[in-house]
Structures are given as structure tokens and as C-alpha cells.
Amino acid sequence: MHVAPPNQNPLFSFHVYLLRRRVSVCAKSRNLHGGNLETTREEYESITRTQLETLSTKIRFLTAMESELKDMNPNPPSSSKEDRPLLKSESDVSAAIEELDKKFAPFARKDLYGTMGLGPFPTAEKVKLAVAMVTLVPVRFVLAMSILVLYYLVCRVFTLFSSPYRGGEEEEEEEEGGGVVQEDYAHMEGWRRVVIVRCGRFLSRVLLFVFGFYWIPESCPDRDSAADSSPKTSSSEIAENGETDKEEPERPGVIVSNHVSYLDILYHMSASFPSFVAKRSVGKLPLVGLISKCLGCVYVQREAKSPDFKGVSGTVNERVREAHRNKSAPTIMLFSEGTTTNGDYLLQFKTGAFLAGTPVLPVILKYPYERFSVAWDTISGARHIIFLLCQFVNHLEVIRLPVYYPSQEEKDDPKLYASNVRRLMATEGNLILSDLGLGDKRIYHATLNGNLRQLRVFHQKEE
Predict the structure, then answer these.
(1) Domain residues of the chain, as ranges?
(2) How many CB atoms lie within 10 A of CB 279?
(3) From start to end residue, where is composition biased (Low complexity) (predicted)?
(4) In terms of C-beta density within 10 A (0-12 exposed, 13-18 middle, 19 or more buried), how is residue 328 classed?
(5) Is the pTM for the entire model greater than 0.85?
(6) Residues 6+ positions from 14 with CB-CB distance below 8 Å
(7) Within a 10 A sphere around the Cβ of 123, how many other Cβ atoms?
(8) Facing residues of 334 across strands?
(9) Among 117, 359, 374, which Cα is nearest to 259's?
(10) Could you please report the per-residue DSSP string of 240-297?
């Protein structure tokens, strides 16, 4: 049975304090009157020699009990900090953060702004941030909001009198959810769809320019292995048919990309204007909600589903097959890692993009930096946007790999298919493979927040 040390037992300590206080008062009264208790009988009738002896006995008993409890806990805390074992020293907290960064390396920030973008900042960097806050940030913010509102108006005008496509879920599911579930304007055909797509691509690139991405170099390396993995006609088939029919290359059903930041979405919008997977709440947001429907986003349904509900993976699978068969259908874009990293690693791939067994187009995004990394790893959204707007030039490099055609074995095994594409992207993008995922990132964030909170306490005490 664990017994708390006396100095950690408030009731015990308070009892001892009261008894000692009463003895002290009595002793003082005796000293003031020459040690003669009889001279103060009228003033201290309640205090007799017998009572004093009783109190002294209690004190001796409690003191003995205290010594026994100390023997049960031979290593009592020596300081107020050690009384609370969760409160570590500043050096211990810093060491713990370094250890966390090593263990959860794919999510650790390595730029000038430090863990979670909290610094400490050099004096020169503080001056640069102060100047940018009063010059660049207001201008860029106004321009960005103007572009967002402008494109919203384009989407609003060119979707008037058009009914959204509801092929992702049944109407009864929509009614049960109390709002928009799966509906989009990406399946709308004709000149209005052309205007929405072209304006979206152009304004997305303009928005990236406003954010400091003035030029975006793209490379498309040719790989013999990719060519070898494409469908070929065997020599026996040539002998039987006499010649080889030149078939048109299969259209990729999905674009697969690594995920570093929310800026990835802007780039892909400017490059191919694909559909994305988004939270259901995004479809209800002002401005952004309508834009996401024009993109043809597949909304994640987090609420309870009926047994016959096919789920997001089923919807994505259908959209991938549709894009593969139909050139006019919107291409879907998937971040198979499921979360963002610091840009140096590639996490485990989810199999959603590979269940259909159609060809995929791998795209690798890299964000070189000198001061601030635009990777959205541990930094908060508000702090990330401010630092992004404060940095005059931001860099983005794109590597577009050839379309990956799966073998029959890969079509039969989506995990194998995902693993092979992942290794290919890691090799071409010089990325480090990691087995961590979204769950590990959440653990890292929670632990990191606790350690940094303690570190702030120490800094406040020093100040």
C-alpha cells in the first residue's frame, strides 16, 4: 500500500501546524509572565498544565509518525519542482523535444523558425518580420481575398440554373445528414464548365504568385522502367495477327501526390484542376464550399452510416474508374499519405487510389527553403499563413513521373500496387520512406504541446 509522504499530505501537515501553534501560544504566555502559569489563570482558564502536557504528547506522537513515514519514503522530494514530477527542468524539456523530433522525424520542423514556428528568432529575423507585417502582409492578404471572392462569383454566375450532380450517395442519405453530402458541378458539360475550369486554373496560379511562388519549375523524367511496365503485345500475338495495333495509351484514373501543405491544392488546381477528397464541412463553408463543388470534391462522411452505405472508398473507386473510362469526367487527385509531412519523407500509402487497378499519375512536390519552410507539419494554421505572407519569395519544384501502368499482380493486390508506386516516388523525389502515419502525428503533436507548455512556464519565471 502506497502512503503519501507527510509533506505531501495537506491534512496531516495542517493538523501538526494547529497543534504546534497552540503550544507556541501557551509557551509565549508563560514566558511573558516569568514562567508562572498561576499569574495568568483568569486570562487563560482554558489552558492548564494538563492540557499543555496533552498537547505535547500529541506533538511527540505525530512527530514519531512523521519520522516513520519518512522512513517509508527514503528519498523525499528536495525542491518544489520535484514535488511535481511532471514539471521537468528546462534542459530536460529541451532534450525531450529533441528526442521527439528524432522519433517523429517526418513531422519535425527544421527551418529557422523552430519547432511549431515558435522560435527563438534572431534579431535580424525579427526585424524582417516586423517590416513584412506592415508592408507585404496587408497587400497580399487583400489580393488573396479579392481573388477568392472573384472566383466565387465566377462559380456562382456560371452554375446558375444548373442542378448539382448527385451520383455519390442516395437522396435518403442526404436527407438524414441534414445538408449537402455528395454533390458537385464537375460533371457539368459545355462552355460554362470550360469557363469555370480555365478561370480556376488561371486564378489559382495568380494566387500562388501573390504568395511568392513567382516561378514553378517542372520536370518530367523519362523512365525505362515505366515504359517497361506499360501494356505490350507479345510476339505470339504479332504472329497471329500479322501486325500490332497501336492502341491509345490508357488514361490515368487518378493523380497521386505527396502531401506537404495546403498549398499543394492550389498547385494541382492550377495544373490540372482535379477533384479532391475533403471534409464534409468544407462543402458548407462560405465561398470555399461552392468552389469545392465546382472542383467535384468527394466529401468525407464522418457520421454513422447505414449498412448499405458504400462509403468514401466506394465513391472514390467509382470516380477513379469513371475518369479512366471517360475523358470528359473530372480527374480525381489523392494524397495517399493521408496527412502532411515536412517534405523530406514519404509516409505509408493508403490503398484508396489503387483499388480500381487503373493507371496512376505520380506527382512529387518539393518546397526548397532558406528561412521559412511552407510545410504544414507542426505549426498552427494562423502562424503558418502569417509567416508565408511575410516571406517575399517561396519556392516550389514539381516532378511529374510517367503514368504508372500496373501489372496484373498489382491489380489483384492494391497494397502491392501502392507500395511499388510509393517506392518509385521516393526514389525519384529523393524522399525517405517512413512507416509513420496520421495517428503518430497526432501523438507527436499532443506530446509536443505539453512539453512546450512547460518550457513557456520556465521562460516566464526567468522573465
Answers:
(1) 6-76, 105-230+250-435
(2) 14
(3) 227-236
(4) exposed
(5) no
(6) none
(7) 7
(8) 256
(9) 374
(10) HHSS---PPPPPPSEEEE----THHHHHHHHHT--B-EEEGGGGGSTTHHHHHHHHTP
Instruction: Select from 278, 268, 269, 322 the least CA-distant residue to 155.
Output: 269
- Helix, coil or strand: residue 405: coil
DSSP string, 166-222: --SS-HHHHHHHTS--S-BSTT--SHHHHHHHHHHHHHHHHHHHHTT-----EE---
DSSP secondary structure code for residue 442 in this structure: H
462: number of Cβ within 10 Å: 7
Three-state secondary-structure class, residue 34: coil
Report the alpha-carbon distance of residue 170 to residue 181 in Å, rounded: 9
HSE-up of 177 (CA within 13 Å, CB side)?
A: 23
Higher local confidence (pLDDT), 390 or 68: 390
Q: How far is 19 from 222, CA to CA, in rounded Å?
A: 88
Query: What is the residue whose three cell numbers read 468527394?
Result: 298
pLDDT in tens, 150-180: 999 999 999 988 888 776 444 444 444 444 4
Closest CA to 309 of 174, 180, 164, 186: 174
Cell of 146: 479579392
332-334 and 277-279 beta bridge pairing:
unpaired
- Determine the length of the chain: 463
Phi, psi for 225 (deg, rounded to 5): -65, -35
Contact 224, 338 (CB under 8 A): no
End-to-end Cα separation, the chain, in angstroms:
42
Q: Are 373 and 367 in contact (CB under 8 A)?
A: yes
Omega cis (within 30) before 402: no
Q: Which helix (H) or strand (E) holds 333?
A: strand 332-334
Structure confidence by residue, pLDDT tens digits, 31-62: 545 555 444 455 445 555 556 566 566 666 56
Contact between 406 and 417 (Cβ < 8 Å):
yes
Cα separation values, 242 from 234, 336, 450, Å: 12, 43, 72
Measured N-to-C along each axis, helices 136-158 and 191-210 cross at an angle, to the nearest 10 degrees, of 170
User: Positive or negative CA dihedral for 204, 209, 212, 215?
Assistant: positive
